[in-house]
Amino acid sequence: MHKFWQNKTFVVTGAAQGQGAAEAKALYDLGANVLAIDIAATDLPVWNELKDHGASDSGRLNLRSLDVANSSAWATLAAELQSSGTQIHGLVNNAGITLRKTVGQTDPEEWRRVLGVNLDGAFFAIHYLSPLMASGGAIVNISSTAGLTGYFSAAYTASKWALRGLTRAAAQELADRNIRVNTVCPGLVETAMIHKANAVHNAEQAKTFHEGNRQATLLSRGAASTEIAGAVIFLLGPDSSFITAADIPVDGGMTGGGIYWRIGKMTGNL
Fold it and tell me: Is the confidence at residue 196, as pLDDT, over 80?
């Protein structure tokens, strides 16, 4: 354990599984107190892996079922934390859902739900929790390579681009309190979400989608959740003390490689 993390409280959303669970585990392993938030009820099996991980010192791991798109739920949580005298030292807005539909394919209700979880959830978290944050704290918003380039998924892309704007606005507002706000933009990550079929993509198309992402990545593979968590920990910790309002791609070169990497491969130059 590093003394920087001890007796500090960090909030991670979308923490029951996948990338969020990896981030919560990493913080716990460093000695931090972790408030893990997810829409899933805390008695569901989806939490079991994280619960088991924190069993040795369960007092440092607190689980909370909360819909991040519900502003009233955030207001209630903030009031409880304030009443208990809990100070927040870091926030990871990781909760997110995907929808592989174009503008024409997306229903208004689907649009609203994706934006509600991916964007409104991060806004509500910052709005309600930043007043409880200590000087020197940090916020990390999880965007995507879809927030750095063009992607056919309308609602998902819009939400991830908007997160980068929210990051910059919050970074400006909170700078006088020495609270840093940054964005991590993952590429292909090997979680259950990337492999799921949906209303447009069946299982075979989902497999093709995954393979297309892999082929578009310079390192020719997807990231482990722990690799994304490593970047998040860096941005929450003391080694990034002069980084704020930044976008950090953690994508194996997917965006940085650009279109000419694929062309170089096709022509035999690479």
Answer: no
Confidence of residue 17 (pLDDT cuts 50, 70, 90): very high
Enclosing domain of residue 230: 9-267
pTM higher than 0.85: yes
Task: Average the pLDDT over 99-108 and give the result.
Answer: 95
Question: Residue 2 domain-assigned?
Answer: no
Rounded distance between C-alpha atoms, residue 110 and residue 224, angstroms: 28
Identify the pLDDT of residue 197.
53
CB distance 134 to 88 below 8 Å: yes
Give φ, ψ of 200 to 5 degrees. -105, -45
| Dihedral of alpha carbons 46, 7, 1, 92, sign | positive
Task: Assess if residue 1 is contained within a domain.
Answer: no
pLDDT single digits (tens) 48-66: 999 999 999 999 999 999 9
Asked, for residue 45, whether it belongs to a domain, the answer is yes
Higher pLDDT, 269 or 245: 245
Residues 217 and 252 sit within 8 Å (Cβ to Cβ) = yes
- Catalytic-residue membership of 156: yes
Does residue 139 lie within any of the structural domains? yes
Q: Which long-range contacts (CB under 8 A, 24 or more apart) does 167-172 make?
A: 167/139, 167/141, 167/143, 167/245, 167/247, 168/245, 170/126, 170/130, 170/139, 171/244, 171/245, 172/245
Number of structural domains (the chain) is 1
Please tell me the predicted confidence (pLDDT) of residue 123: 98
Which is catalytic among the residues 28, 128, 156, 260? 156
User: Contact 77/64 with Cβ under 8 angstroms?
Assistant: yes
- Residues in Cβ contact with 2 at an 8 Å cutoff, skipping those fewer than 6 apart: 30, 31
What's the CATH code of the domain at 210?
Answer: 3.40.50.720
